[in-house]
Fold:
Amino acid sequence: MQIDSSVRRFRFWSILTVVSIYLLILVGGVVRATGSGMGCPDWPRCFGQWVPPTNVSELPADYKQVYTAQRVAKNQKLARTLAGLGFKQVAGEIFAHPTQYIETDFNATKTWIEYINRLLGALIGIFVFVTAIVALPYWRRDRTVFWLAVGGWLLTGVQGWLGSLVVSTNLLPIMVTIHMGLALLIVAMLLYAANRAQHWTELQSMNETSSRLSAVASENTSGIYTLLWLALVATFIQIVLGTQVREQVDQVASAANYINRGSWIDQLGSVFKVHRSMSVLVVLLNGYVVYRLWPTAGAGLRRLLATSLGLLGLEIVVGIVLAYLALPAVMQPVHLTLATMLFGAQFLTLVTWQRAKTNAQQVLPQPAHA
Structure:
């Protein structure tokens, strides 16, 4: 069956957008690893300009006071709004967190690293919008795909707004964590949309023998489904814990004046120990998923399972390097990017297995009833 041009177009843009989001996550990791998160103290412009300055002489003498005052005013408005909505604890953290009153010194390199991060984010905004446009044919064909694409576009706008709050709160930990969590949600939505967009070609492309289809159809559906979700949720929690460890590393590094990297690990709190222990659970769950699914999996599902194992192996190696070689900065963004790629591969595994299960039940003849 020849794939419709609208399907090819939608899959191209949705996959391009997902790849771009992963690139943005990698660049965001570079921003954190280089301490460039506050390279631009305002948003969406940078030091009030669309093209950032390259020298401190281009800024007013009191630029620190100016941008600190702007941030504090914005944070106070946000905190009042959150308190009015019932989120008093979060509002209190924003008011009480001391980092919002701290302005970093201008550094041209860090400013441009952060600005490139923002330019890539703006480009992804365009990609997501185009993805929503090319999803219009699915209004009649499959409205789930249409709403996933449109929802991804709307959430990207929310993500941009959250990015401005991350800046205004001077990288407040809870804001950074929410920002990452929403990025993973957008990735999952677009991956599912791209996968679902080609669902009518899958029955023809399935080359499994009838015995394999029987094995798939007879699997304990609820048990496998629960196992796949457990593995996915464990990875998500691990990523959230990782962002919190990253925040602690930033605090320890700042307190140590960015020297004596070898002692930073010892100064991390309990979150790092939980994150390290949680990795064992993630490995066990993924290993068991492969053990259960591999015998009855088709070629596509086996590729996803192998990809997940490969990403997990690389993630473990990078984690060991970070823990035992004094947190080399170059490995920090790699660690985060591999984790988010693993999340994507696991999500696609879940979707693909569920689709294979449905297809098997449709292809195999149903038992006759007396």
Observations:
- The radius of gyration is 23 Å.
- Confidence is low (pLDDT under 50) at residues 203-211.
